[in-house]
Amino acid sequence: MEAMEGGISNSTATGTTESELEALQREHEEKNLKIQELKRQIELTKNRLEKKKKEVTEEQMGGFNTLSNKYNSLREEYNAMLAEKLRESK
């Protein structure tokens, strides 16, 4: 009887080891899938940030151009008024 008990416990131990290995393999596969998903999300987020950065830069350039045009307009108006004042004072 002892031999059978030993055989039973050996097969149970082997079965448990195989189950543990299968469980570890599934866990490993799940973690790999999660890693791939996280990498994909990181790449998408990176692309969105780069796009947003470019949009902000274009908006800022638009604002800069508007201010530059306004400055140039005011400068021309100032120079015209200054020239007129100089002519009047002669």
From TrEMBL:
Residues 1-32 are annotated as: Disordered. Residues 23-32 have a biased composition (Basic and acidic residues). Residues 8-18 have a biased composition (Polar residues). This is Uncharacterized protein.
